[in-house]
Write a structure and sequence with these properties.
By secondary structure, the chain is of the alpha+beta class. The chain has one domain. It has 2 helices and 10 strands, in the order αβββββββββαβ. The strands form 3 sheets. It has a 4-stranded antiparallel beta sheet, with no helix packed on it. The chain has a 4-stranded antiparallel beta sheet with strand order 2-10-6-8, with no helix packed on it. A two-stranded antiparallel ribbon has the order 3-4. A hairpin with a 2-residue loop joins strand 3 and strand 4.
């Protein structure tokens, strides 16, 4: 019986050691710290909102006339000495700075028009606006003045302008000058 008791004691001791080993392994696994960290980063695309009011279209210059203008139904009619001006707005409501460039394409249809951006200095060629900055939230107003100058005026007279030419245009009565304004906006670098 001693042998049986000795074996039972050994088995019991081995069983306790085995249980202690299992308990320490389970305890080790249960008692360790575990954390997880997750970060989500988001960004919104900046708003692009630019506009050119009354630009990028063919303008009826003579709906802005102020002198020597009659109307025939819905048509505006001009003669030498007629003057006028019009304005257009360039707006940057974007969330980024931008630049703009303007190209003017005048189809004078044989009428020798004079152009000005300040109302005092006149030329026979309307210059394009090269790349210019426009800040976020800004509106820039551009004004263009025009006139059909009399030949005797001291402003630069275009080659070919004469009373005879003006009279021939009046006899035909069908010339329709236009100005097209093309505006290009680009995000500033």
């Amino acid at each position: 019986m001693k042998t049986k008791k000795f074996l039972s004691t050994k088995i019991l001791v081995l069983l306790i050691v085995f249980l202690l080993l299992i308990a320490s392994a389970v305890g080790y696994t249960i008692s360790k710290y575990v954390s997880a960290n997750s970060q989500t980063y988001t960004a919104r695309v900046a708003k692009w909102d630019v506009s050119a009011q009354k630009a990028s279209t063919s303008l009826d210059l003579f709906s802005y006339a102020s002198a020597n203008v009659a109307t025939s139904g819905t048509e505006n009619i001009i003669a030498p000495g007629a003057t006028g001006s019009f304005s257009y707005d360039l707006t940057n409501n974007s969330e980024v700075a931008a630049t703009y460039a303007v190209v003017y394409n005048a189809n004078e249809a044989g009428v020798y028009l004079q152009w000005s951006v300040d109302g005092t200095t006149w030329t026979d060629n309307l210059s394009d606006i090269t790349t210019t900055e426009i800040a976020m939230g800004a509106t820039v107003t551009k004004v263009i003045y025009w006139k059909w100058a009399f030949e005797a005026e001291t402003t630069p007279i275009a080659a070919g302008q004469s009373n005879v030419n003006d009279t021939n245009l009046g006899i035909a009565g069908n010339a329709t000058p236009t100005l097209t304004i093309d505006v290009t906006f680009v995000q500033e670098d």
